[in-house]
User: Fold this.
Amino acid sequence: MNLFLKSTLALLFFTLNLGLSAQADADRLLGVWEPSNGKARVKIEKIGPKYYGKIVWLREPLDPKSQQPKTDKNNPDEALRSVPLKGYRLLKDFTYSGNNAWAEGSIYDPENGSTYSCTITMKDPNTLDIRGYIGISTFGRTDVWKRLQIPAK
Amino acid sequence: MKQLALFLSAALFLTMGCNTSSKTSSYTLSDVVFESAGPYFEGANTFTLSHTIDPSLLADSAGFSKERIASVRLRSAVISPAPGQSLDLFRSFSLALMGNASESLTAAVLNPLPANTGQAKLGVSAESDLKAFFSEGTFYLVLDADLKADHEETLTLLGNLVFEITY
Assistant:
């Protein structure tokens, strides 16, 4: 094998490895996570190139008044108020920006029907800082989410 | 009186000026397959479908350029089971669109699903403008199907979707 061919193959292998490594790095976000208030559990999954988080468990799944499963009753769009909260995708459109951070996404608060810009930072493999904000991230609130060591659902 | 006549003329002129003619066309997806792989768990399971359109071709067929697409709305969404399967396994459906560059939007929902139904006709959002997905060309249709119980075998759902495009 001549030197040129060897160099090309080595470069190809390196590039491929780098891509796979970046992918694996980004996919560390996948799994089931619990916000600090313990009211819900959120499964983060990947659809296309982006990451989304949907509610898979609620501590109080029933509406106290109707005793029916909770729905997105505060959605500004009246037609969507019957969307079940269990299964609701409240983290949307995150892309990996490197350095343990996922950005350009949003988080929805079903308790008031508001959507906030959001960034996710992985502090360690089992801890996320979820920062919701309006406008610039300086003015926002950070919640700490913990990874659940249960089978992904 | 002269001032009133002037005001009315100006109002009429502005109204006519703003009243540019618009046209609508429809875009239909028939029996498209929402894919997923079992086993499934009780609760919301994700069924996805990637779809590609050529917005230029679409607009051209209606006699416009793609820049003239003003809005795209989902007009109807009907989900059916694959032959030999049943919708009785499900509690509800909600349908969202996702794109590589566009923010995801929920476009339709049916909750609860009526018992013993062969088709699920979802209620569509009149507010969700899906133009960004059509402009992008390739987008994902994501169906969240809420299962009543765990299920082992692979399930297939078919979608009949009608979009209304306004120029």
Notes: Chain A has one domain: 30-147. Chain A has a mean pLDDT of 89. Residues 3-26 of chain A form the longest helix (24 residues). The helical segments of chain A are 3-26.
